[in-house]
Write a structure and sequence with these properties.
The chain is built from 14 helices and 13 strands. The protein is of the alpha/beta class. Among the domains are: 19-115, Beta Barrel (OB fold (Dihydrolipoamide Acetyltransferase, E2P)); 121-278, 3-Layer(aba) Sandwich (Rossmann fold), CATH 3.40.50; 457-512, no CATH class. The strands form three sheets. The chain has a five-stranded mixed beta barrel. Helix 4 packs parallel to helix 8 (269-276) and helix 5 runs parallel beside helix 6 (232-239).
């Protein structure tokens, strides 16, 4: 039977409390009961001090978590800087926050207690995959410059997919296939692994097009929020993917195992979209610029060839100039042809008139011709018989020579002789090359010895005047003359100074054989 009492009107006589009264009573009860506690746990969701100087995060273990706050004055007294995933021992008091019906610990002192369980597990997986070479830069592939299909592995309802779709639409609209997965929780890793394997299992010519690049994306969060993307199976699936993968998990300061094995890491999902596709407007502008340059180059090339053709046409003679000389020769030959025909006819008539023909002469010539024909016939028959005998004997001799046994012996002998000749030829070529190389080396040494360049390298110089003539004596140099000094590593210009005779005087004195600097004797 209930202890609640009711009045005659049916209303309960239990005390009524407002929400604030209940929250205040709970706050006082918790603060009185847990005024000073020490809590051991792992820091989660730490993003550094707030703009006000306070720090808000959570302490957790494998079964529960509690919100924590460090006020600005306490942060200034801490001997170390808290980090995400660090296991610590916090001393403080428990209290409640009535605005959200949560309880939290206000930390007065914080001591490190070793690396957190999640961070230790993450470091162990990282070392294991690194030892297998999955993080090596040599195995990472380049992204396609202009993909036709992009596969996105992310939540279909979050802001990440909207940011990616919007950015790709602005830069270069392409076909996008979204594989919906959970991005937080125990099933996030297996679902993302199945998505990566599923995209790789698509056929290139199937009903669903195979993506050219994959984007694995998720927004920022704490270590446990992103833990699904530290799954070892997912990391191995991304490493074994035949499609290039871009990792865009969390913010720029967040790192997961997927970031290390992916072919490219983007700081944000929007950055992943920018990496995946180029800017269509820039490509169109580049193509337009290249097209304009191509048209300009073609126009200039045609103009240059047209000018060259016109210049060549001006240099070539006209048809009348080319045919003038042959036409004149033809006219002269035509005028001489009639006269030559008349002269030739007269000569033939004279020769024919000089011939004296009679029956006796013709009879003698016919008789002599018949004798010659009979003699030639007899000789031809004898020659034919001799040729037949000779051909028959040669045929019989060749038949004996082409006997299979004889041919085999001769073939073997020819092969042995060919091997000897080949070895002799190879040796002869080697000896000839050695002799020519020795002669070349000797000639090179002789050239180096006789070359004036070797003399210049010892500190000497070749002096030549403005005409390029080599100066062989100081007497041929006059004051103010420009000289060129050829040294081992180049040339230098110089101007002669001092008292000297003019070139004309020196030339005259040299022709007379006198010294230009001394006066000759009269005796």
């Amino acid at each position: 039977m209930s202890d609640t009492l009711f009045t005659d009107s049916g209303r309960s006589n239990a005390t009524e409390y407002t929400v604030s009264e209940i929250s205040g009573a709970l706050k006082r009860a918790i603060e009185d009961q847990f005024g000073n506690v020490r809590v051991r746990g792992e820091i989660s969701g730490y993003r550094g001090p707030h703009s006000s100087g306070h720090a808000y995060f959570a302490l957790k273990d494998d079964r529960a978590r509690i919100e924590a706050v460090i006020w600005k004055t306490t942060m200034a007294r801490l001997r170390f800087r808290p980090e995400e995933g660090m296991e610590v021992i916090a001393s403080g008091r428990l209290t409640t926050y009535p605005g959200s019906s949560k309880y939290q610990i206000v930390i007065d002192n914080l001591e490190p207690a070793g690396a957190g369980a999640l961070m230790a597990l993450l470091e162990e997986r990282k070392r294991k995959l690194a030892a297998e070479g999955l993080f090596e830069a040599s195995r990472k592939r380049r992204l396609p410059f202009m993909p036709k299909v992009i596969g996105v592995v992310t939540s279909p309802t979050g802001a990440v997919i909207r940011d990616i779709l919007h950015r790709i639409k602005d830069r270069f609209p392409v076909h996008i296939i979204v594989w919906p997965v959970r991005v937080q929780g125990d099933t996030a890793g297996p679902e993302a692994t199945a998505a990566v394997d599923g995209f790789n299992a698509l056929a290139a010519s199937g009903a669903i097009p195979r993506p050219d690049v994959l984007i694995v994306a998720r927004g920022g969060g704490s270590l446990e929020d992103l833990w699904g993307f530290n799954d070892e199976a997912l990391a191995r699936a991304v490493a074994a993917s035949g499609i290039p993968v871009i990792s865009a998990v969390g913010h720029e300061t967040d790192w997961t195992l997927v970031d290390f094995v992916a072919d490219m890491r983007a700081p944000t999902p929007t950055g992943a979209a920018e990496m995946a596709v180029p800017v269509k407007a820039e490509l169109e502008a580049g193509l337009a610029s290249l097209g304009a340059r191509l048209r300009a180059c073609a126009s200039r090339g045609i103009d240059r060839r047209r000018q060259a053709l016109r210049a060549a046409a001006r240099a070539l003679p006209s048809a009348d100039q080319l045919l003038a000389l042959p036409r004149r020769r033809f006219d002269e030959a035509t005028s001489r042809l009639a006269r030559g025909l008349v002269v030739n006819t007269e000569r033939k008539r004279a020769r024919l008139g000089a011939v004296r023909l009679s029956p006796a002469v013709l009879t003698r010539r016919v008789t002599q011709g018949r004798k010659d024909v009979r003699a030639l016939s007899d000789r031809l028959l004898a020659a034919l018989r001799a040729e037949v005998r000779d051909r028959r004997s040669r045929f019989e001799r060749d038949a004996r020579r082409f006997d299979p046994a004889v041919l085999t012996r001769r073939h073997q002998a020819f092969r042995e002789r060919l091997g000897v000749l080949q070895s002799r030829g190879d040796r002869s070529i080697e000896v000839s090359l050695e002799r020519r190389f020795s002669r070349l080396v000797q000639a090179d040494r002789l050239l180096s010895t006789l070359s004036y360049q070797a003399v210049l390298e010892r500190g000497f110089a070749v002096v030549s005047n403005a005409d390029g003539t080599i100066v062989k004596s100081a007497a041929s140099i006059f004051a103010g003359e420009r000289l060129t000094l050829t040294l081992a590593d180049g040339k230098a210009n110089a101007i002669a100074t001092g008292e000297a005779a003019s070139r004309t005087q020196r030339t005259k004195l040299s022709r007379k054989g006198a010294d230009p600097d001394r006066q000759g004797s009269l005796f």
